[in-house]
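Entry for zinc ion complex. Fields follow.
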Amino acid sequence: MNIEQVITRLKEGNARFVEDKLDGALQDSKRRDVLTSGQEPYAIILSCADSRVVPELAFDTGLGEIFVVRVAGNVANSSSIASIEYAVAHCGSNVIVVMGHQSCGAVTAAMKGGNNGYNINHLLAHISPALHACGANAGVNEVVRKNAEMTAADLVNRSAIIADAVNAGTVAIVPAYYNLDSGKVDFL
Ligand SMILES: [Zn+2]
């Protein structure tokens, strides 16, 4: 599938999810057998770890279809970028979706500030640029959208592997916003 076809596939799968019409394909023993020799996921999803946001369900995908990297706040840190680099370089994925979501707890925590201990402070620092870009009066969902957009841009700036693929036209990066209530993914 080319970039346009992948985005169409993701949108169609999400429409099925929203309408409670998951097809549940490619989740059986036959599919597992096929995949033992390798994987060619067509998309990479950088998503939050939030239990309410499940990319495989949200896009109605089965085994081996999407390469999902989950970290609170869907931030681009060394580990999440390295995981994405692997899929770009070795799996032939040609779309990267950076997906924030409604009422994200990590973004909310970043907005509150304060000292949350070494690890959480480190994670939340990755959301600071979006906070500053939105200003003090922004709501959480505005910051979530900005964080997805800025993280998408950041991937190119911080990874030669991703930048080369984008410049060659083989990979596209798309920011997105997941609505907790409807299940709809808005491509930004
Ligand atoms: Zn979240």
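NOTE: Residues 14 and 58 are 5 Å apart (CA to CA).
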